[in-house]
Design brief:
binds magnesium ion, 9 helices, globular, binds adenosine-5'-diphosphate, 38% helix, 6-stranded mixed sheet, alpha/beta
């Protein structure tokens, strides 16, 4: 479902991604671990073309992201086409990024209603079902400032799902939460995994990665240092850098 091949990305002289490969099968969950600054967020942003890779490519469901091939060369897509592709790639941010002036329901309705121009009644019914799915049926008319961080993040997940994405990307979805609110968000992600949602989750929650991920990827210095099943990467890491990182976070 997600194919990242040889992706390089620099910001000025700073080489942030140094040739990253990643493959996520349909219905699979990949957890990405790694120290701060290792390029995890940049990698996610390259997947949905919020950042343009300098080299390499990303494909989702067989479709090249951000480009089309023409006469043997790549042409960058127009903004409108990139937005269409991005709609199929849900993104959940560390800091929720909800629209503060809209209610929970309006946040979920916004994109399918106004970006995809789907009918109001249908979109609203689906949005209510999504809020119910993340345990917030009773918060539909509440604004984000009156919700806890965990509730806000669950609205953000419902909002991402409203576009019926092929894949969901999570960038440290629980890092901004008080410890007692982490569980309710991880529970929602766990349910999505059980329902066969394709996901890439950047997280420091090692226990969660062990339990939910099919594949764990450890990044350091802009490279994938190692990847494999959780039991291998987390319990029997092959690389000293992975071991050192796990020693720190466990
Ligand atoms: P991580 O998510 O693993 O902490 P990031 O992908 O956010 O890492 O960042 C990797 C490196 O790239 C960091 O040194 C960060 O400061 C730098 N960086 C990220 N985005 C930008 C940007 N837009 N401009 C300049 N430097 C950036
Ligand atoms: Mg980050």
């Amino acid at each position: 479902m997600v194919e990242v091949r040889g992706v390089h990305k620099s910001f000025g002289a700073l080489e942030v991604l140094r040739g990253v490969d990643l493959t996520v099968g349909a219905g699979h969950v990949t957890a990405v671990l790694g120290p701060s600054g290792s390029g995890k967020s940049t990698l996610l942003r390259c997947v949905n073309h919020l950042e343009r890779a300098d080299r390499g490519y990303v494909a989702v469901d067989g479709e090249l992201i951000g480009y089309r091939r023409g006469r043997g060369v790549l042409h960058e897509l127009r903004e409108r086409q990139i937005l269409r592709q991005r709609a199929a790639i849900g993104f959940v941010f560390q800091n929720f990024h909800l629209f503060p002036h809209l209610t929970a329901l309006e946040n979920v309705v916004e994109a399918p209603r106004f970006a995809l121009r789907r009918p109001a009644a249908e979109v609203e019914a689906e949005a209510r079902a999504l809020l119910d799915r993340v345990g917030l049926a009773d918060k539909a008319d509440v604004h984000p400032r009156r919700l806890s961080g965990g509730q806000q993040q669950r609205v953000a997940i419902a909002r991402a799902l409203a576009l019926r994405p092929k894949v969901l990307l999570f960038d440290e979805p629980t890092s901004a939460l008080d410890p007692e609110l982490v569980g309710e968000v991880l529970d929602v992600i766990r349910d999505l995994a059980a329902a066969g949602t394709t996901m890439v989750v950047v997280t420091h929650e090692i226990g969660f990665a062990r339990e939910v991920a099919d594949t764990v990827v450890f990044m350091d210095g802009g490279r994938v240092v190692e990847s494999g099943p959780p039991a291998q990467v987390l319990d029997a890491p092959r690389h000293e850098r992975t071991r050192a990182f796990l020693d720190k976070v466990l």
